[in-house]
Specification:
The complex is a heterotrimer of chains A (51), B (175) and C (513). Chain A is mainly alpha-helical. Chain A is built from two helices and no strands. The longest helix of chain A has 26 residues, at 17-42. The radius of gyration of chain A is 23 Å and the shape is rod-shaped. In chain A, 20% of the residues are buried. Chain B has two domains: 9-43; 50-174, Sandwich (Immunoglobulin-like), CATH 2.60.40. Chain B is 24% helix and 35% strand. In chain B, strands 1-2-5-11-10-7-8 form a seven-stranded mixed beta sheet. A four-stranded mixed beta sheet of chain B has the order 4-3-6-9, covered by helices on one side. Chain B is elongated and about 80 Å long. Chain C has helices at residues 20-51, 60-93, 102-124, 142-171, 181-212, 220-231, 233-254, 261-274, 291-298, 300-326, 335-338, 346-368, 374-377, 381-409, 418-444, 468-500; strands at residues 8-10, 17-19. In chain C, strands 1-2 form a two-stranded antiparallel ribbon. The model of chain C has no long low-confidence stretch (mean pLDDT 93). Chain C is globular. Chain C has 513 residues and is mainly α. Classes of the chains: A mainly alpha (51), B alpha/beta (175), C mainly alpha (513). The interface between A and C is medium-sized, with 22 and 39 residues.
């Protein structure tokens, strides 16, 4: 049990909406958008030689 | 109440029931997550793994050359093509046809190149119901091995204009 | 509109301060939402009557037009207008605070309204039959894209008002300690909304320029990637707002109190962090993207967002059970459930929403969102079945249930047609379950989505499905028609009550009954 008089650090983190905001925008931006855009931009283009 | 602020110290240990439920859920989630990469290596069906862009004009040209080289006839105005064993096969989606009609051999692996020369299309192989997104400018490269002979159809399942519902292609697999 | 920024009344039931500015803004946003569900619902009925093989009502041109309008009016306009009302409620009313910058909030409303009207006008004048997804290179009129941009900017501004109100409430110390759980959940929804609307802006601005001819080439795969950052994530806003409303409905109908705040809040934090990765679900059978990108994102970073939903699925029924047992319904295992207020519209709406969202929508979503199983379901009608379970059976039904409480508590009108209100969630839920089963059954057999004619009568190459597909299609269409009836009941009751319902006296305390 948590002793009275000290609020858990987790509770402080959860109350910090701006931190959650930052993480909530940063995580999908990095893993989904930036990673995906880099893959699409760096994909090779086919050179046609005929079948 | 959920509509008023909670008590000052709300970070409290969970009850036994909650702990059991959450542990089961975590284990289940991890199993699910492991299955995807596992199946990617041991499974027989996976989406394209070869990234390749292709200009729609180039794809049109290369499909035209492919059809000219291996054409064996025509059906309702659409060329029928029989590629040699193990050849690269080109299949073009356009409003509102899949070109050409293909004649393949059972048990032979073909490397399919599927793309579009106009809008987005949806490659939907029936009746086994296998679906792939066909994106103009990108070559959807799939290694396909027909395992049973018969007639298969390709319908379009991505909206591509007012004739979308008439877009049907065909693959015939012979022994 | 001219209300004084500081003018408020105290709610006789909850003791919350309701500021006049907040009340007016909630009213206009909620009423506008209902207008859009009416438009979207008429389109839904036309689409269902066309899908019904025996009727096949519309021409292909009209069918695709109606389907485009149905998607946009329901998925975007109805839901987001309602959510904006919800955000103002969660920040201003629940925190007893005045609303930040009401004039800007009105501007946000006007931007959203102009945007949505512009989109609808373009669709109905045949300038934008492009479906909800409007995939490049299928091109719509530039004003269509401009409409979406205006709408997104307006909605983003409304999110800003929400965060601004949180800051004001904190500075004015209108609450003590942490945010109430419902407000915390709505904050999660607003955070998810910011990523969503930013993706919308990133992709629709170049698309707008492309439609004007300023930009020549737009990579269709790039469009798909960023578009789904908007298109799918907008549904994650709905999920998060819906879960918050489940907690709210639990409190309003049976007095349910979250058993462990830590657990409920952790689940919302998991949503904030990971749920937006799920946009990848649309791209699993796409060329070019690597399996690593697909597996990582579609797995929501080890399914942590699925875990969050599993946690809510325990926490909400648990809170209801505890509250009911405290009232003395302790006989056997299930007296708490059988003696629940099933005749109040809010309770069945919450339970059906939870069941349809979780059991049908959630499970199908996780299955279809696997890299390999996506091959079996991508773009089939089963997908349509999945998101009708999540967005309609889940979000819309929860919002409908809440409406019956917002009208007496916030708009101070007595509900007209209480029996209709009580029956409405049942009719709507049964219709939806039939619709979803039919769509899923036909889709698993290969029936495509967004399709005018699954008999392929006009094709050059003849093709026909297993006849079971037509049976499932008929079930889906009949379910759709029943759901449209349920939707009409909702619109009827809410419009009549808001405009003609008896005005409640200042201290008159009344939920639905």
């Amino acid at each position: 049990m948590k002793e009275e008089g000290k609020i858990s650090n987790w509770q402080i983190f959860f109350d910090d909406i701006s931190m959650l905001f930052f993480l909530g925008v940063a995580i999908p931006t990095i893993f989904y958008v930036i990673w995906g855009v880099m893959e699409l931009a760096n994909a090779p283009t086919a050179v046609i030689t005929g079948p | 109440m959920p509509i008023t602020s909670p008590e000052t110290y709300w970070w409290k240990p969970a009850d036994k029931e909650e702990k059991i439920w959450i542990s089961v859920a975590i284990v289940w989630c991890l199993i699910l997550f492991t299955m995807m990469p596992l199946w990617h290596f041991v499974g027989g069906q996976n989406p394209s793994v070869e990234p390749m862009k292709i200009r729609p004009d180039d794809f049109d040209k290369v499909t035209g050359a492919f059809i000219e080289k291996y054409k064996i006839g025509e059906e309702s105005g659409i060329p029928v093509v029989k590629p040699p064993d193990g050849a690269d096969v080109y299949l073009k989606g356009q409003m509102w046809n899949w070109i050409p009609i293909l004649e393949l051999k059972k048990g032979v692996n073909y490397k399919f190149h599927i793309s579009s020369v106009d809008l987005m299309h949806g490659f939907s192989l029936q009746p086994m119901n296998m679906n792939f997104q066909i994106v103009p400018g990108h070559d959807n490269i799939l290694n396909l091995t027909p395992t049973a002979s018969g007639t298969y159809h390709i319908i379009c399942n991505e909206f591509c204009g007012v004739g979308h519902h008439t877009m049907v292609g065909k693959i015939v697999v012979k022994d | 509109m001219a209300a004084n920024e500081m003018e408020f009344r105290t709610c006789p039931i909850t003791g919350k301060k309701v500021y006049a500015t907040t009340q007016n803004l909630m009213w206009i946003n909620a009423v506008t939402a209902v207008v859009f569900i009416l438009i979207g619902g008429i389109m839904a009925l036309l689409v269902a009557l066309t899908r019904l093989p025996a009727v096949h009502l519309l021409s292909p041109e009209w069918f695709y037009k109606a389907l485009t309008a149905h998607g946009l009016n329901m998925l975007v306009f109805w839901i987001i207008f309602f959510e904006v009302a919800g955000l103002y409620f969660g920040s201003s009313v629940l925190l007893n605070s005045r609303l930040a910058a009401p004039k800007v909030a009105w501007l946000a409303y006007i931007l959203m309204l102009v945007g949505s009207v512009l989109v609808d006008v373009m669709v109905f004048t045949d300038n934008a039959t492009v479906m909800f997804s409007s995939y490049v290179p299928l091109q719509a009129h530039p004003l269509y894209y401009l409409g979406i941009i205006l709408f997104a900017v307006g909605a983003l501004t409304a999110c800003g008002i929400f965060f601004g109100t949180l800051a004001i409430a904190k500075a004015d110390k209108t609450y003590e300690g942490s945010l109430p759980l419902v407000t915390f959940g709505l904050s999660a929804a607003a955070i998810i909304a910011v990523f969503t609307l930013a993706c919308g802006a990133i992709i629709y601005i170049p698309t707008f320029l492309w439609s004007l001819g300023v930009i020549k080439n737009l990579d269709p795969a790039m469009y798909r990637l960023i578009f789904w950052g908007f298109g799918h994530s907008s549904q994650q806003i709905n999920v998060t707002a819906m879960v918050s409303i489940w907690y709210l409905l639990g409190a309003l109908t049976v007095g349910a109190k979250p058993v462990n705040e830590k657990i409920c809040r952790s689940a919302f934090v998991l949503y904030i962090l990971f749920i937006n990765l799920a946009s990848e679900h649309h791209l699993l059978t796409d060329p070019t993207l690597s399996p690593a990108h697909k597996i990582w994102n579609t797995g929501y970073f080890m399914y942590m967002a699925v875990l969050a939903s599993m946690i809510h699925a325990l926490a909400i029924p648990m809170a209801v059970e505890v509250a009911q047992r405290k009232k003395g319904y302790t006989k056997g295992l299930f007296e708490w459930l059988t003696k629940a207020p099933w005749g109040e519209p809010g309770f069945p709406a919450m339970i059906f929403s939870l069941l349809i969202f979780g059991f049908i929508g959630g499970i199908t979503g996780v299955v279809y969102g696997t890299e390999q199983l996506s091959i079996k379901s991508h773009n089939t009608w089963a997908l349509t079945g999945h998101f009708h379970a999540t967005v309609v059976g889940g979000t819309t039904l929860a919002f409908m249930g809440l409406t019956y409480y917002v009208i007496p508590l916030i708009f101070r009108r007595e509900i007209i047609g209480k029996k209709w209100a009580s029956a409405q969630p049942y009719v709507y839920a049964i219709g939806l379950i039939l619709l979803i089963l039919g769509m899923s059954g036909a889709g698993i057999l290969g029936s495509p989505r967004r399709h005018w004619d699954v008999t392929f009568a006009d094709s050059i190459i003849p093709f026909s499905f297993d006849p079971t597909v037509l049976l499932f299609t008929t079930i889906a269409a009949l379910g759709g028609i029943l759901a449209a009836v349920g939707g009409a009941m909702y619109v009827g009751v809410s419009v009549l009550s808001v405009f003609l319902g008896r005005k409640l006296a200042p201290n008159e305390a009344k939920l639905v009954y």
